[in-house]
Amino acid sequence: MKNRKVAVYPGSFDPITNGHCDIVSRGLRLFDGIIVAVARNGSKNPLFTIEERLEMAGEIFKDVPNVEVDSFDELLVDYVVKRGAHAILRGLRAVSDFEYEFQLALMNRKLNRNVQTVFLMTGLRWIFISSSIVKEAAQFGGDTRSMVPEIVSERLREKFGITS
Ligand code: ADP
Q1: What is the extent of the structural domain holding 94?
Q2: pLDDT < 50 stretches in the chain
Q3: Lower Cβ count inside 10 Å, N or C end of the chain?
Q4: How many domains are there within the chain?
């Protein structure tokens, strides 16, 4: 992806939601390419395995030009450099995201001054959506189809053994 402005969009994506997809489509208006980078080493205890998270994201973006789905296991700034990318893309929902995101961005800047972090604000419709809220709803049989892509809501139903 030489001479193209590429951003890495890192996250746990456990699972990927419409909020994440919204950030990717907004990011595509600014960048020539986006790498959706699923963290292998997230400290959280994930519901979906890395393979499952990669499969869902891969399926969602398979026909979207200039979006690549990958995983990473190293320091994020090192991955960004390795991929020849220029920026880290992160999504912001509310003030509650700000403190953590600010800390993360400053830490990454300290680790590598050449890598910039770009924040995009999510669409209003997705402001309340998070992977954890979606998992909680799905666990109790809640309909998640308006919050996540179809493949994700299917996988959630399978995971929690919900048949209807
Ligand atoms: P992490 O574990 O790194 O926080 P997530 O998968 O939870 O990974 O989120 C990845 C990024 O997507 C973060 O920048 C997060 O703020 C953003 N994000 C999560 N949900 C939404 C949403 N509904 N709208 C916009 N951005 C979101």
Answers
A1: 6-158
A2: none
A3: C
A4: 1
In short, whether 117's Cβ falls inside 6 Å of ligand 1 is: no
Q: How far is the CA of 9 from the centre of ligand 1 (A)?
A: 9
Q: One of 4, 5, 25, 44 is an active-site residue; which one?
A: 44
For 111-136, write each residue's pLDDT tens digit. Answer: 999 999 999 999 999 999 999 999 99
Rounded CA-CA distance 152/159 in Å is 10
Clarify whether 44 is annotated catalytic: yes
Q: Is 146 a catalytic residue?
A: no
- Beta strands 6-11 and 67-72 are unpaired
C-alpha–C-alpha distance, residues 97 and 156, integer Å: 25
Question: Which residue lies with its CA nearest to atom 26 of ligand 1?
Answer: 91
Dihedral sign, CA of 35, 39, 44, 50?
positive
Selection from 20, 32, 153, 30 nearest residue 91 by Cα: 20
Q: Which amino acid appears at position 143 of this protein?
A: D
**CATH code where residue 138 lies:** 3.40.50.620
